[in-house]
Amino acid sequence: MTAMQDVCADLAAEGAGLARLVAGLPPGQWSAPTPAAGWTVRHQVAHLAQVSRLVGLAVRDPAAFEAETAAVREDAAAGTAAALAERLAEPVPELLRHWARWRAGAAEGLAAVPRRQPVPWLADPLPASVLAAAALTELFAHGHDIHEALGVPYAFTDRIGHVAFLGTRARDLAYRARGLEPPAEPFRFELTAPSGVRWAFGPEDADQRVSGPAADFCLLVTRRRHRDDLALTAVGPVADHWLGIARTHLVAPGGGPGRIGQYRV
């Protein structure tokens, strides 16, 4: 459902929208707490700037990417904290300038790469289109936190289709994160986009099925809401169990898998 150029264009649009939201914020709002424990609006933007920087490096200069991320691969918590601290030390205007430049570089760089070409990433190389979807998922998740901190409702668009795609592709990650063996049987996902379009992933005849609004699905897999607060339906015991553990990333902001905002674990 997602051509490579589409995901890169959507990545650029999602980043530009969030940048407009935070542009011109008074100092007090930059220090506003977000649903991620210990993270302010400034932490969230600093994190997103660093992600954009790394995506751009991975595409343009894999050797520099490997050097930059060596500390993260050696000690994920300490390496991530050090990189975040470097971004947080920048004055807000400089942070915003860097973020704008790195966002553009990431989207343009990914658009120039064949969609199935592997690009180095923190754990394993990812196809360029999947890395673009992962970068957009970061924007969606952390952008949602920023919207909540500022009291501005998040406007869902069909750009979340890339987040939904990543959520279905990362199905087995939820099991590995808990030391469980992923099920062999496939899932069918049937989701309704904000526009009303129906998105489907997985074989039509799968016994294990998940359905509902794509917006709710994206909030679930990015761990921004608990399944009990969402209009998602599971058919089959395996799919029902998965709704309780779904995720797109191994760890939450701050380095741990604990609660994010209203997400009850």
UniProtKB/TrEMBL annotation:
Residue span(s) of domain Mycothiol-dependent maleylpyruvate isomerase metal-binding: 11-146
Pfam family, one: MDMPI_N
Record-annotated tRNA wybutosine-synthesis domain positions: 183-234
Coiled coil stretches, renumbered: none
Signal peptide coordinates: none
GO molecular function, one term: metal ion binding
Protein name per its UniProtKB record: Wyosine base formation
Species of origin: Kitasatospora phosalacinea
Lineage, broadest ranks: Bacteria, Bacillati, Actinomycetota, Actinomycetes, Kitasatosporales
